[in-house]
Every structure is written in structure tokens, then in C-alpha cells.
Amino acid sequence: MTAASLSRFLRPDQCAIRLVESQEIGIVGVGEATVPHIRFFNQTLGLDEADFMRKTHATFKLGIEFVDWARLGDSYIHPFGEYGREFRGVKFHHCWNRLRLAGDPQPLDDYSLPILAAKRARFAPPSMDPGSPVAAFGYAFQFDATLFAPYLRAYAEKRGVRRTEGRVVDVALRGTDGFIESLTLASGEKIEGDLFIDCSGFFGLLTEKSLHTGYEDWTHWLPCDRAVAVPCESFGPLLPYTRATARTAGWQWRIPLQHRTGNGYVYSSKFVSDDEAAATLMKNLDGKALAEPRLLRFVTGRRKKTWNRNCVAVGLAGGFVEPLESTSIYLIQAAITHLIELFPDRNYDALNIDEYNRVMDVEFERVRDFIVLHYHATERDDTPLWNYVRTMPIPDSLAYKMELFRERGVVVNYKLGLFYEPSWVAVYVGQRVLPKRFDPLLDDTPLDELRRHVGGVSAAALAAAESMPTHAEFIAGYVRAVR
Ligand SMILES: Cc1cc2nc3c(=O)[nH]c(=O)nc-3n(C[C@H](O)[C@H](O)[C@H](O)COP(=O)(O)OP(=O)(O)OC[C@H]3O[C@@H](n4cnc5c(N)ncnc54)[C@H](O)[C@@H]3O)c2cc1C
Description:
Elements: H1 2-9, E1 18-21, H2 37-45, H3 49-56, E2 59-61, E3 63-67, E4 75-79, H4 92-101, H5 113-119, E5 140-142, H6 145-158, E6 162-165, E7 168-173, E8 180-185, E9 190-192, E10 196-198, E11 215-217, E12 226-232, E13 242-247, E14 250-256, E15 261-267, H7 274-283, E16 294-297, E17 301-303, E18 307-308, E19 311-313, E20 319-320, H8 328-341, H9 350-376, H10 384-391, H11 396-408, H12 421-430, H13 447-466, H14 471-478
Parallel strand pairs: 1-6, 3-13, 10-19
Antiparallel strand pairs: 2-5, 3-4, 7-8, 8-9, 11-17, 12-15, 12-16, 13-14, 14-15, 17-20, 18-19
Helix pairs in contact: 1-6, 1-8, 4-13, 5-13, 8-9
The structure holds flavin-adenine dinucleotide.
């Protein structure tokens, strides 16, 4: 992603880009679900959507279903799109909340087109007409990460990136200031450079092994530190969403692709053994396993400085927040965007580096708070993991956000970072963090008038969802992937 983007945005007469990868080491290869921003990434590169989907066996994603999170038996979808329509300038979730407090039982999910479509395994892209009832949603993709990387490699090479297959065995630092001077490969080749982008995954080969940047560990807030992953055969209708099912010591993902389903159990090694986690995963697959389960270890957190001296750590080298909301690929995208915005000259202005680190810290922290919310806002007390997360102290920034929503139904507003109001509303309500009050502008509105408004919204959303083709039909027509 980084080489492809830089080759698109930097002029070849100003910058020569080298990419070093090692097939012997390989890639982590498990990032399969994304958030809608990936479409912007693809568009800025000028990728053809159908071609990209065909080459990576991608499916569409309208959101994530959370099963058993707040209570055993609960299920809700975090959709990529807004709920309902405002009523006289008042946000829809306040209208819904006013009726809920008056005793109306209709779930918030009924007012979201992407949720209604997802539940029916249907998909059609949003209308480009902002006034249309089928405009106010977005979508992302679920794809085979092991195919996306070579797809982008080919893109980058076409735009002049020189790729070298080889293992970095040594990193030389400049005596004067400790900046990285060159890399040495196992072949003996020495590669010099001005700016080094560490995309070496959990190794943190440059940023940590050479520059000793340091890591901020967030395991006390997000205790899952391992995952076991396995693909299985597809089963049943092709669903346009990811599912995250809470388990005894973590949660299990299910990501439907065109040719198979990706599965994994993300868990805390404090609360379950690796063997038990693998057995739980294998017992809960929809179809026949296509490989042996693969174990991955990680520490949730962030590099103390994602840009240190002349090294920018992108991807897992820069940090990792567990994949509950499919945010890592987004964070790669954010790192690249901010790097291009703040691209250095050879003077490496300290202020520029500080600004990059500030915005990346904000990006990581916003994702972190959102993920912690899913764990902490639970009523589950049936296993040690759920007892721990329910009662643990949480970041002050999240405590403030939760309190404001619980008291007033207000979502803290921000411009930088991932997840805006509809996402927070979805997860608050889904996790049973319900507002005590509603917008006072609704005080004098007769309930019948409000009921007519929300009734119209849900009927329109339902009709739109029912009119969509099935996800499988849409993909077959749009992508015609060669299996
Ligand atoms: C369990 C799990 C589930 C995930 N699910 C999702 C998800 O659903 N959605 C999402 O957005 N993200 C997800 N992620 C994160 C996602 O997998 C990564 O963000 C993404 O794959 C990018 O990884 P990376 O390129 O940083 O590291 P890697 O894939 O590990 O790539 C590292 C690269 O560095 C090279 N390298 C390393 N050392 C050397 C060396 N010495 N010499 C030469 N080359 C070297 C390797 O060959 C490789 O090419 C998940 C991660 C995990 C662990």
C-alpha cells in the first residue's frame, strides 16, 4: 500500500522508491476485512473496482454483526451508514430514543438500510443522488489480503518502484545523529536511502530493532494478545458483512470472501490456552476447514513515535489494535496520507515530525477507545475475561464519551480519526449504553407525529433493501471473478 501510494503521489524525478520484501519471511496475511475508507484509497490510486474485486476475490461489506457482546443472545450490526432521517433538525437517534423512553419497542436496526440489506444478504451500491433514500450509506470490502499485496506490488512496479526480493540482515546508523544510513541484504547488497519506511510487520525491524523507539502497551485495556486463524469452505448465502461472535476469552471472526470464508479466534492467553482456543475455533466453523489453524501473537499498542529520525513505521511495525473493527488497513492508509501531507525534505524539520506523530497518536487513540467500548460496555459476568473488561478502568477520553452519551444521547464530535456519529450510536445502543434523555427540541413534539416520521423511515428503508439483488447475484454480475 505504501509503495503504491508513494509511486502515485511523488514525482519520479524527485524521489526514487525501493521496495524490499522477503518471500522467505512472508506477510502476516490475515487482514481481510476493511472499513469504507479503503474505497477512497483505491480511487486515489485509480484502481478499477471490479478488477480489484476480481483479483482479490473480494466481497462487499455493509458492516459488522456483533453476537453475544452485551449479553449472551444479543446481536446487533454496526452499519456503514446513517440511521433514519433527521426530524426538524433533530438527529434521528434522539427521535428513536424519545419513542423508546415512551415504551415503543422497535429496534434502532430497523431504521438502517445497510442493516436491513445485510440481514437479507442483499447488496446494491448507494445512489449518487444525495436526496435518494438509498444514498446515506457506504460500503467496504472483504478480500484476500495475500492477493491484495501482490496486486499493489504490480501497480507500484509499473510506476517505477524498484522491488528487491531479499532479507535485510543489517541496518547501519549514521554516527553523527543516529539516522538510518543503509540496509544490507543477505545477498550482500547495500541499499542507501534518505527516508526509510518500516513496513516489516510485528518485527519492527528498523524502528524497534535498530532505533529502539519503544512501544506503548495497551494490553491492560485490550487484553487479547493472540489469534488463531483458519479458512473454511463457504456455506449458505454470501453475506455482505463480517461477523464477530463473543467467546469465553475473546471473539471469533467470520469473513465471507467469494471463494472461501476467513475465520479466526482472537483471545487473551491469560484466560484460555492455545489448544483450547484452536479447538473452539474449529468447532465453530460454518464449513469444512481448508487448512490447519495458524497461531499469531501480538501486543496491542502503538510505537512511542511512529516517525523517529528518518524512519516512519507503517502498518504493524507502527502498532496494532486488535482487528475487532477491521481498522489496521485504515491505519496504514492514514499513515500514508499524513506522510504525504507532511513529506520531509533532507532537513527533517522536528516540528514536521512532531505533527505527524501527533496526528497518528490521535488516529490510534480514537480507534483504541472505540474498540475498548465494545468490551467494557458489557453486562456479561459469565467468564473471567468478561468480568475483567467490564470492571477495568478505561481511558478518561472514553469515560467522558460514554457519560455524555448515557446522560444526553450526545456523541462527542471530532474531525480527525475514524468512526463518526452513526458508528458510535450503533455500538453504544448495541452494547446497551442507552441515553437517559433526548434532545430537548423534541419536548413538545407530539408522539404520533414522531411515530409517523420514524414509520415512514423504516418503511422506505425496508422497501429499498427488499428491492436490492442478493449479494451473490450482484457480485456475479459486477465482478465475474474467475474462481
Ligand atoms: C489476527 C489478525 C487479524 C487481522 N485482521 C485484520 C482485518 O480484518 N482488517 C484489517 O484492516 N487488518 C487486519 N489485521 C492487520 C493486517 O493484517 C495488517 O495491518 C496488514 O496485513 C499489514 O501488515 P504489515 O504489512 O504491516 O505486516 P506484514 O504483513 O507482516 O508484512 C511485513 C513485510 O515485511 C517483510 N519483512 C519483514 N522482515 C523483513 C526482513 N528482515 N527483510 C526483508 N523483508 C522483511 C515481510 O516479508 C513482509 O513483506 C489483522 C492482524 C492480525 C494479527
